[in-house]
Write a structure and sequence with these properties.
Elements: E1 12-17, E2 28-35, E3 38-43, E4 49-53, E5 62-64, E6 72-85, E7 90-103, E8 113-118, E9 124-128, H1 139-148, H2 156-159, E10 177-182, E11 187-193, H3 194-201, E12 212-218, E13 221-226, E14 231-236, E15 241-246, E16 250-252, E17 301-303, E18 307-312, E19 318-322, E20 333-338, E21 345-352, E22 355-360, E23 366-370, E24 391-395, E25 401-405, E26 414-417, E27 423-427, E28 434-439, E29 451-456
Antiparallel strand pairs: 1-29, 2-28, 3-4, 4-6, 5-6, 6-7, 8-9, 9-10, 10-11, 12-13, 13-14, 14-15, 16-17, 18-19, 19-20, 20-21, 22-23, 23-24, 24-25, 26-27, 27-28
């Protein structure tokens, strides 16, 4: 998760007010349970539901979590993909023993098999996440880093410090990649290595971190949102690199910070905490901080994008959403549309909080899944991200915005509309009690005084574009 100011042009802006409607809680049915850090969900050609389970890591080597540097994420082979037969209710792990990272001993914030996607011929593709400095992953990329000697920014030593001893590497070579996968045999064909690309290119110019989070296939290529690198990739289904761009940051006024910064280093590390969560305020080696803790950045604050959900819209364009970076201010997350003619991202809808995924329903409504409806630090207990109340917000083609589901949604990661018209959500996506729930009678819940800013684009054509999740 990194910072880089990227300019982009906007088209016609229209501000529309939400229409209050009578409140009615949506009922839901649990269709899958007992999932380990569930992430993206996808429907296969046979109508079955596939759930990426990033796993619980293990007792292997560890590194600081780039999103929670006071915690360690440790390696194991606990990642999996579960297939759910909705007709019978049967759950089957069709991928197992996959590389995984997760915080120990809480087993939260996994990185592993993120999502399965299918092309028009029914071929399956697996996206795997990662969390941290790419060269810590395995010996091959570690040795590459010794050759290229990347110019690491000062904050890297706190957020994702590089390993110096090869014996301390995580040894999870299948993380941070895109594969073609035979689900019958679990045979993998590697197509693209996002960790290697980040090490060699560092598209947004910030910390060297990668975490491929979600995937959308369009025609013969895949669009991938990397929530660690803050990059949107377009990769051919043959593995050819097509394009990548840094997700644009934004300047935000009057950002609220917690009283205690979460950017402290691991316990007993000997490192000096970053004041107020701003890496630029790190003191020089041997110097004491000049200002008392905590000190927070001045307004306006440059807020990271942290791209998450990605999908193809009814107009054929690709849309992606953002979680936003720390401190996750309410109402600052956006949905962006990649202009098919220019290849540039443009704000399509704003005013959301911590989006983890988006989808369009058959009527062209945009469904926005909020991981949490408030800045996560306001409701977390002892740093845990479990049980944070979230919601699903619907944006109609004419711009009206309503909350259609909130009761029962906690720390959710993925959303899809099923062949049966139900809205499916991968719920409780933190830890080992994850589930997938289906909402059927989604009714609008009023959002008094809410305003939605939308960009409307004329002459939209079918998509011809060539070209930091951890959850937090």
């Amino acid at each position: 998760m990194k910072l880089k100011q990227v300019g982009y042009s906007l088209l016609t802006l229209g501000a529309l007010f939400a229409s209050p409607m009578s409140a009615e809680a949506a009922s839901f049915t649990t269709v899958a349970s007992g999932l380990n850090n569930p992430s993206g969900i996808t429907f296969g050609p046979d109508g079955s539901l596939y759930v990426g389970e990033t796993g619980t890591g293990g007792d292997g080597n560890c590194q600081p979590s780039p999103s929670a540097p006071e915690s360690l994420i440790c390696a194991g082979q606990t990642g999996s993909v579960t297939k759910v037969d909705l007709a019978s209710g049967t759950q089957t792990r069709v991928v197992s023993n996959f590389d995984s990272l997760a915080i120990q001993p809480s087993l939260e914030q996994g990185a592993g098999p993120q999502e399965i996607a299918f092309d028009s011929e029914g071929n399956a593709y697996l996206l795997s996440g990662y969390a941290g400095y790419p060269a810590n992953r395995d010996l091959e990329i570690f040795e590459l880093a010794q050759d290229v000697e990347p110019d690491l920014p000062p904050g890297q030593v706190v957020f994702a410090p590089p390993k110096e001893n090869p014996s301390e590497l995580l040894n999870v070579p299948d993380l941070g990649k895109l594969f073609k996968i035979d689900l019958a045999t679990q045979e993998l064909t590697e197509l693209f290595d996002f960790a290697k690309h980040e090490l060699l290119n560092n598209v947004d110019g910030g910390d060297y971190i990668t975490n491929p989070f979600t995937i959308a296939i369009q025609d013969d290529s895949a669009f991938v949102a990397d929530a660690g690198a803050n990059v949107i990739y377009n990769i051919g289904l043959d593995g050819e690199f097509i394009n990548a761009f840094a997700a644009p940051t934004q300047l935000v006024e009057n950002v609220e910070f917690p009283e205690v910064s979460p950017f402290g280093p691991p316990e007993n590390s000997g490192e000096i905490p970053i004041l107020g969560g701003d890496p630029s305020q790190l003191p020089n080696e041997g110097e004491e901080p000049e200002m008392p803790f905590p000190v927070f950045p001045d307004s306006p604050y440059e807020l990271q994008s942290v791209p998450t959900g990605i999908t193809t819209g009814p107009d054929g364009a690709v849309y992606y959403a953002e979680l936003t970076g720390y401190p996750f201010p309410e109402g600052e997350a956006r949905v962006l549309r990649i202009n098919p003619e220019t290849g540039e991202p443009e704000v399509f809808a704003d005013g959301f909080t911590q989006i983890t995924d988006i989808a369009f329903d058959p009527d062209g409504n945009l469904l926005v899944l909020q991981f949490a409806d408030e800045a996560q630090w306001k409701n977390s207990v002892n740093g845990s991200l479990k049980d944070l109340p979230g919601s699903v917000i619907k944006v109609t083609p004419d711009g009206k915005r309503t909350t259609i589901a909130s009761e029962g949604i906690f720390s959710a990661a993925g959303i899809q509309v099923g062949p049966d018209g139900g809205i499916y959500v991968s719920n409780n996506a933190i830890g080992t009690n994850g589930s997938v729930i289906r909402f059927d009678n989604t009714k609008s819940v009023p959002e008094p005084g809410s305003i939605l800013g939308l960009l409307f684009f004329g002459g939209a054509t079918i998509m011809g574009l060539k070209g930091k999740r951890n959850i937090v």
